[in-house]
């Protein structure tokens, strides 16, 4: 692989697009060669996000005006809305088949076409690519990601639930029919588009559950948990919206199998993540806080006893825009391009 790579960001005017740019500007081995934003085409990035004023960046262009063969891109991040991404990536890879893609939408996360149609309301429009895509949870699929052309970056909620639960599921250490995931996300998880329900006066001074009983991230959890267990797993999952900018906190309730207690579950997680650069298991009994991972690519995990013997409470916290989206995408990029996995992602959390 070349010493440097030319990178494109599709959808650079959104929160995940701008977060990608923030991270990549500090990456020593990439050059930003393309930034797209159809509604902002012709503008400078500083006009959309003034924090980028000091940097020489390409002007925003429309995807339709991009000549993929001549763009000379080694890898493209696709930070476009769900549903629109499939045809864009299909066109891109048809015209520039050697370009690698990390997709941050949900369009390639589900590998069963019937499951995709059931959860998203329409048939997948690029089924051949759906079959090719590799699920981008690095801690599980690291080796497959290294050789992939198309990686489906996991969802933010699902990352914050899978990292604490997958080692326990693989070890057959918890009751698969008694998993409860109570998750809370900051406002940036809803995207940057103007929505009445996202106005400050609508969301401040309170928080609420949404997507109760049928949130689309359930399909992703079902897929990965069932694959890890070797049989169907259907966890209970409820997301909540919290009036903060960044962060996800998942409080997960589990029951150990064969008399396993919280200490044994904790030991499994410590062993699973001993060598992982971006997952940290706190001392037993300590619980993570979103403020302690803000702006970083870290996931903090804590385990505590429940008052009922055999039950445990597992908490995980991450920044939904970094490890939950753009940071994990850069982690995937590093593997796909043969760079050190942690390159450009070393920032420590911003606190206070």
Automatic annotation (TrEMBL):
> Which keywords does this chain's UniProt record carry?
Amino-acid biosynthesis, Arginine biosynthesis, Cytoplasm, NADP, Oxidoreductase
Instruction: Please give the pathway this protein is involved in.
Output: Amino-acid biosynthesis; L-arginine biosynthesis; N(2)-acetyl-L-ornithine from L-glutamate: step 3/4
Annotated active site:
156
Report the main location listed first in the record.
cytoplasm
GO MF terms on file? N-acetyl-gamma-glutamyl-phosphate reductase activity; NAD binding; NADP+ binding
- Kindly provide the name given to this protein in its UniProt entry: N-acetyl-gamma-glutamyl-phosphate reductase
Tell me if Transmembrane is a UniProt keyword of this record.
no
Q: Which reaction does it catalyse?
A: N-acetyl-L-glutamate 5-semialdehyde + phosphate + NADP(+) = N-acetyl-L-glutamyl 5-phosphate + NADPH + H(+)
* Species of origin: Rhodoplanes roseus
Which SMART domains does this entry report, sorted A to Z?
Semialdhyde_dh
Membership in a protein family: Belongs to the NAGSA dehydrogenase family. Type 1 subfamily.
Q: Which residues form the Semialdehyde dehydrogenase NAD-binding domain?
A: 6-148
The cellular location(s) given in this protein's UniProt record come to: Cytoplasm
For this protein, the Enzyme Commission number is 1.2.1.38
Source species, domain of life: Bacteria
Please indicate if the UniProt record lists Glycoprotein as a keyword. Answer: no
Task: Read off the InterPro entries from this record.
Answer: AGPR (IPR050085), AGPR_AS (IPR023013), AGPR_dimerisation_dom (IPR058924), AGPR_type-1 (IPR000706), NAD(P)-bd_dom_sf (IPR036291), Semialdehyde_DH_NAD-bd (IPR000534)
Q: What does this protein do?
A: Catalyzes the NADPH-dependent reduction of N-acetyl-5-glutamyl phosphate to yield N-acetyl-L-glutamate 5-semialdehyde.
Q: Which GO terms describe its cellular component?
A: cytoplasm
What are the GO BP annotations of this UniProt entry? L-arginine biosynthetic process
């Amino acid at each position: 692989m070349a010493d440097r790579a030319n990178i494109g960001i599709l959808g650079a005017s959104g929160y995940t697009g701008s977060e990608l740019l923030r991270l990549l500007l500090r990456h020593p081995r990439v050059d930003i060669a393309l930034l797209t934003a159809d509604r902002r085409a012709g503008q400078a990035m500083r006009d959309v996000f003034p924090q980028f004023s000091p940097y020489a960046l390409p002007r925003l262009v429309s995807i339709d005006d991009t000549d993929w063969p001549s763009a000379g891109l080694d890898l493209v991040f696709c930070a476009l809305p769900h549903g629109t991404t499939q045809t864009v990536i299909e066109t891109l890879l048809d015209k520039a088949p050697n370009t690698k893609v990390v997709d941050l939408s949900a369009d390639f996360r589900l590998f069963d076409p019937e499951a995709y149609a059931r959860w998203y309301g329409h048939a997948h429009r690029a089924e051949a690519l759906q079959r090719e895509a590799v699920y981008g949870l690095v801690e599980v699929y690291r080796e497959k990601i290294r050789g992939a052309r198309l990686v489906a970056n996991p969802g933010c909620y699902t990352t914050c639930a899978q990292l604490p639960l997958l080692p326990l599921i693989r070890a057959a250490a918890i009751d698969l029919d008694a998993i409860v995931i109570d998750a809370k996300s900051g406002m940036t998880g809803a995207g940057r588009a103007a929505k009445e329900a996202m106005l400050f006066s609508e969301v401040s001074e309170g928080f609420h559950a949404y997507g109760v009983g049928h949130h689309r991230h359930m399909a992703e959890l079902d897929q990965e948990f069932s694959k890890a267990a070797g049989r169907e797993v259907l966890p209970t999952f409820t997301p909540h919206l919290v009036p903060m900018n960044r962060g996800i906190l998942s409080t997960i309730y589990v029951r150990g199998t064969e008399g396993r207690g919280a200490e044994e579950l904790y030991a499994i997680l410590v062993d699973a993540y001993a060598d992982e650069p971006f997952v940290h298991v706190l001392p037993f009994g300590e619980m993570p806080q979103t403020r302690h991972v803000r702006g970083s690519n870290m996931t903090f995990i804590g385990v505590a006893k429940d008052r009922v013997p055999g039950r445990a409470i597992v908490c995980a916290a991450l920044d939904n825009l970094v490890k939950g989206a753009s940071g994990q995408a850069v982690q995937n990029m590093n593997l796909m391009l043969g760079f050190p996995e942690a390159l450009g992602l070393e920032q420590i959390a911003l606190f206070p």
